[in-house]
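Entry for manganese (II) ion complex. Fields follow.
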Amino acid sequence: MSVSFIWLGHSTFLFDIDGRRAIIDPFLNDNPLSPMKVDDLPSVDVVLITHGHGDHIGDAPAVCKKTGAVAVGTPEITRWLKSQGVEKTFEGNVGGTYRGEFLHAKWTQAFHTSSLPDGSYGGQAMGFVIRGGGKTLYHAGDTGLFGDMALIGEEGLDVAFLPIGDKYTMGVEDSIRAIQLLKPRYVLPIHYNTFSAISADVSHWAELVHRNTQAQPIVLDPGGTFLVE
Ligand code: NI
Ligand code: MN
């Protein structure tokens, strides 16, 4: 069993779980950090979408149409994707789980807003607890800090993906408090340095993680890969 992933900048990860692929929050063509555009993407079977903002759902229609992947999101998200011509969708909501062949993804709350690219209501923003290949990963989506991250931590996280860019999500200081609640083995920063409005000093962040938590900070360059061991 094996789990690895490539960070494509912002909140986008391409996962390889036992040789099968999934992508979360596909933001490629308009993402200045992503070395991979929709046309470069290998086949994926599952597309997870945390919420409706363009920097998370933007390329989901194109990726689903190119690959035939199933799109996993809340009813508001999947309804919009269907209106964009996406054929395979799976809807759920907080506490529910998508159970696929090689990964399970449970919706968790996130504290954030959500609207679709056409301005329509996007439902509640979400995170996901992802299980596959014998590992448990938590992608927080866009969110501020919340105390119930302690409950998510009780699931035993190998990896947490947490925003640190501030302004639209928690920033560096609150991400440290989040790590203290989540207690992951590894933590990766997301949603930073994509645009100047969300710039963050990632080496300072890594130093704070070392100093204040038990987690190991993993800072990838866009396009960088990590094998979860
Ligand atoms: Ni957002
Ligand atoms: Mn965002």
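NOTE: The two ends are 10 Å apart (CA to CA).
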